[in-house]
Model the fold of this input.
Amino acid sequence: MDVKANDFSKGSVKRLILVQALPLTLAQTVQLLYNIVDRIYIGHLKDVGDMALTGLGVTFPVIVLIAAFTNLFGVGGTALFSITRGRGDDEEAENILGSAFVMLTVASVILFAFSYCFRRPILFLFGAGEESYFYADPYLKIYLFGTFFSMISTGLNGYINAQGFPRTGMLTTVIGAMINIALDPVFIFGFKMGVGGAALATVISQAVSALWVLRFLTGKKAILRLRFDRMKPRIGRTRKILALGLPGFVMQGTNSLVQIVCNNQLQIYGGELYVEIMTIINSVREILSLPINGISSGAQPVLGFNYGAGEHGRVKEGIRFTAVLGVVYTVLAWLVVMLMPRFMIGIFADGARTVEIGAKMLNIYFFGFFFMAFQFVGQSSFQSLGKAKQAIFFSLFRKAVIVVPLTLLLPAKGLGVDGVFLAEPISNAIGGLACFVTMWLTIYRKL
Done:
């Protein structure tokens, strides 16, 4: 009965995507609160908020790199898991889950050891100044102790959603985020730990989320479980997981690269104030990208299952629905940014100069935001259907081929700091359309 109830080849495709997407969007919203709440509290610290927020901003590339490796093994395994489940091979699907757990665990140990030992040169390489390093280091050295918890809770949560339990997957992040929100003011202000307190609250909340995920995947409610005897990675299986996870890894990895380049260019052409503003704008972008990311993530198990089951008509219907929904949302989100830029910046900062300059940069950065929908839909379609090479190419194309060169070139050509923020909308238009049109011509029309 449970298997039939979680059979994505039956019922309305639109309803299945929404049933998956809505809890995922809420879960990702709550997940984002881990970092957003930290930034809001830290940005409003008396007298030191601006510099503390700048310090937090230079830790982002490290956090994004951890997320990249989480995607490599978590998202890659989930996509293969969904396709395998659609073919009815439950034993192999459990092997995929077990292999992903082993790879996430090993990667978390290596990332923690390397990042902790070399955090000072890493932070300066990623755009820290002497003042911002004073706040970046205490945050990062505590945050890194939660690397295993972060990678397990995020990397394995997709396997709960892929089995048709999006509400349980949602609770993974809801429980952790609520704990984080409750503990932040206690550690930051009550114990006067400042940025270190924000990091400690995050680690504790991630640990609880990881325990929740492991309890479900090893319990009786799961259709396919995490079993010790299935934790035997094989070369062929590992290669497939890495191939499907590589697009997400490349996307997050290039996000980290872009942030590093941006931080360094902003230090050269504008100083610490503009690093703070970019930190705030990244926070706004993360918030507004959540629904389109949730829609794409919700569509992935449905598209992958139906592709594995040979239901190509349903796959096409799912792609169309995801594209229309994504474009409508991103157009509305863009309008909100244009109407309320000062309010959005003011959520994270008190300084009048920060709000004034930040509002201008926010309008530049978000120009034509709806093009991002095409990138998300094209990327998720390639990944859902196991087309790893195309997904990898367009991840690299938008960030490494367009954004990074423009971030280096435009400021040097007389645009200064404006050029750093202008690189993003240009890349959204070119990269997003190229990804979607290619997917439509090479994948959609052949189904």
Remarks:
- The two ends are 30 Å apart (CA to CA).
- Residues 236 and 242 are 10 Å apart (CA to CA).
